[in-house]
Amino acid sequence: MVTDFIDSVLIIDDKEEEIKDLQQVLEREDICVQFLNPTGKKLSDLPVLKKHKQVVFIDLSLDDSIDILNNVSTKIRPLLSKILPKTKGCYGLVVWSKHTEDINILKEKLQEDKGKYTLPIFIVPFDKTEYLKNNYENILNDLNNTLKDDKAAYFFVSWMSTVKSAANNAISDIYSLVPEYDKQKTELIYLMYKMAISHTGIPEKQIQNYDLTTDAYKSFDELLYSDLINQQNKNSIDIFDSMSKKSDGNNLTEEVNRYAKLNAKLFVDTINIDSDIIVPGNVYEVTDGDRTQRIDNQPKESTSIVIELTPPCDFSHKKINSKLIRGFMYSPLIDNDRLWNNINKTFKGDNKYLLWPIEIKGEFCMICFDFRYTIIVSDEDIKRESSKYKVLFRVKPKLFADILQKYASYSARLGISIITPELKPASK
């Protein structure tokens, strides 16, 4: 599993002669190896990595004249900050150390650097002395077995390996549809053009000022997912075999914000949003302050919003009107239990769609749509009144489908009016 994940490694050590055998073992596995000896060099003279390294091997004692704490503070942290900018992707840190407690010092200090550079997704200690004594032949197997004890790290390493494999398969499958090299420049582009249009169902007459290339990437992401689910290793270890409860150290605010960020990634699309292109799933802020745009019991400090809920089939057939459902976006106090109880009572029901927690523009929010407040507005009016309807984001297909299905279920409720007599109490 580890060999599928690793393409390139960086070895940071002050003794090059001690890691030459390690370099040879890695290169036999077709892993590219870069060596860096920072001894005697100014920090400003050290290179910034130009290519992503999946694993960094580093000596915990780059300067034997000082203790581990000083090595971590004055050598390792500045070094990682210089050579590993925030854009260099996920990697793991293999640390040469004889003592586990020293690794804990490194972990605690690296946490202080959050946001300054990309921190490793895992940190594991290996004893270089043992490998120098017995050779490095089993080091990749040892790393693989060590990661099995860190179920989260093992899962993400395995997942990234399958993503790489799925991406290669997706590209190969597309190119196999047009095997003739002289036709690929035109016919492959046409295939991607059709895939991009099908992503949102946008009519071809509307694409002149629309960034269709971004939708091509989105449609290819969906193609990747199709291949990805077939690449997952069914023989991988069960990461939930000893499921533990979440950390008791998480306060409610931290927990809710964490879920809000995750929900935003899953359900909200802020890329390729254009106020001139009205697409189902677009969510608009109503900015004119019109009180008629507010739904029943809407919180006073909330923002009025509408969602474009035209069925995709109508959209692709050149509809001229938009179906807008009114609602609101609200940033409540997270630790107000009374407020949450009132929200759950007031804004839950067949006629409403409640979404929380979710992060919008860097803030934790709750979003509510009320299906009773449906308005039909022409597309031209929405464009003309762009000062009134300000596009915020688009809900992703899975969330859009769920909102549309629940709206359809509410709108299609069946019922009859029974004719009944007016009953009067019997006279005594």
Give a summary of the structure in a few sentences.
40% of the residues lie in helices and 19% in strands.
Could you describe the 3D structure shown?
- The strands form 2 sheets. A 7-stranded antiparallel sheet has the order 6-12-7-8-9-11-10. Strands 2-1-3-4-5 form a 5-stranded parallel sheet, with helices on both faces.
- The longest helix is centred in the middle third of the chain and has 27 residues, at 151-177.
- A hairpin with a 2-residue loop joins strand 10 (352-360) and strand 11 (363-378).
- It is built from 14 helices and 12 strands.
- Helix 8 (181-200) crosses helix 9 (212-228).
- The model has no long low-confidence stretch (mean pLDDT 86).
- It has helices at residues 2-5, 20-28, 68-83, 100-111, 128-134, 139-147, 151-177, 181-200, 212-228, 252-267, 312-316, 337-346, 379-384, 397-411, and strands spanning 8-12, 32-36, 55-59, 92-96, 122-126, 268-269, 282-286, 303-308, 321-330, 352-360, 363-378, 389-395.
- It has 3 domains: 2-149, Response regulator (Rossmann fold), CATH 3.40.50.2300; 159-228, no CATH class; 252-411, Roll (SH3 type barrels).
- It is α/β, with parallel strands linked by helices and 428 residues long.
